[in-house]
UniProtKB/TrEMBL annotation:
Region (Disordered): 1-24
Key words, A-Z: Zinc
InterPro entries with a match to the protein in the record: GlcNAc_PI_deacetylase-related, LmbE-like_dom_sf
Species for this entry: Nesterenkonia rhizosphaerae
Pfam families per record: PIG-L
Higher taxonomy: Bacteria, Bacillati, Actinomycetota, Actinomycetes, Micrococcales
Superkingdom of this protein's organism: Bacteria
Name the record gives this protein: PIG-L family deacetylase
């Protein structure tokens, strides 16, 4: 059963976290209340992924007092348009860009893993790294790229994006909550715990059932994206595209970002199927 949010911004009473996935248009305050958000962990394959997909929502949540931590799987060393710049210099530059973008939307910390840009695979080793970060942070909700390909806009379904989404979903269930998975983490004091919510961005249109009203935070998203100056051949066109996308997602006069909300564990979740 899905919990339905009103399509009129701020109206209606959304169902609580004991129900199914939330649908419709949500105010950030509703998201905080309904999902019990105090701390969130966001995953991305490359610097700028989360800024394209979820940074206005993150800005709204941090304004509500939610702590948000970002984990990048790669440094993005294969990105950009300057053939004279080495991969090492690109990695250094993009890490700096992401730190600056994170500060714009209130992200407290950026964790960088060591996956190779363009070659991310959802294998045992990467899932273990993600489980480690999840158990260290112990978030109430996890943001991640979606694991399914979006044929309506293939650019958001980069292979690294899909691999990131798949690895995060596998980590969220069952690995992070299984004390027998990655026993070395359990022995190191990183105890198993249950992820409650996944908020997957970059989702295929048919799965993006939750829209978050980010009106008033759209400029922070644009400013954060602007920090990734090495990635934009035409910054003005990027701004126009992202702004139009947020307006279209809202469906009214405001701005919104969309997600596939998955309830991993709720009070009535049982083991098995």
């Amino acid at each position: 059963m899905s919990g339905t949010l009103s399509d009129a911004a701020g109206a209606g009473t959304p169902s609580g976290p004991s129900g199914g996935a939330l649908t419709g248009l949500a105010q950030p305050q509703q998201l905080v209340h309904q999902l019990g958000l105090r701390r969130a962990l966001a995953f991305a394959a490359h610097p700028d992924d989360v800024d394209f997909g979820a940074s206005a929502t993150i800005a709204a949540l941090t304004a509500e007092g939610v702590e948000v931590i970002l984990c990048l799987l790669t440094s993005g060393d294969a990105g950009g348009f300057d053939p004279s710049r080495s991969p090492q210099e690109t990695a250094r530059l993009r890490a700096q860009e992401q730190q600056e973008a994170a500060a714009v939307v209130g992200i407290n910390e950026v964790i960088l893993l060591d996956e190779r840009d363009g070659f991310v695979e959802p294998n045992y080793e990467l899932i273990g790294k993600i489980v480690r970060v999840m158990r260290q942070v112990r978030p109430d909700a996890v943001f991640s790229l979606h694991p399914e390909r979006a044929w309506d806009r293939l650019q958001k379904a980069h292979p690294d994006h899909l691999a990131c989404g798949e690895a995060v979903v596998r980590a969220a269930y069952p690995a992070v909550e299984n004390p027998f998975a990655y026993p070395e983490l359990q022995e190191a004091g990183l105890k198993a715990f249950k992820i409650k919510h996944l908020l997957l961005y970059g989702a295929p249109a048919q799965h993006a059932q939750l829209r978050v009203d980010v009106s008033g935070y759209q400029e922070q998203k644009i400013q954060a994206l602007g920090r990734h100056f090495s990635q934009h051949r035409d910054a003005q066109r990027m701004v126009e595209f992202v702004t139009a996308q947020m307006r279209s997602t809202h469906g009214g006069e405001g701005f919104a970002e969309d997600f596939h909300h998955v309830v991993v564990n709720s009070p009535d979740t049982i083991s098995g199927f």
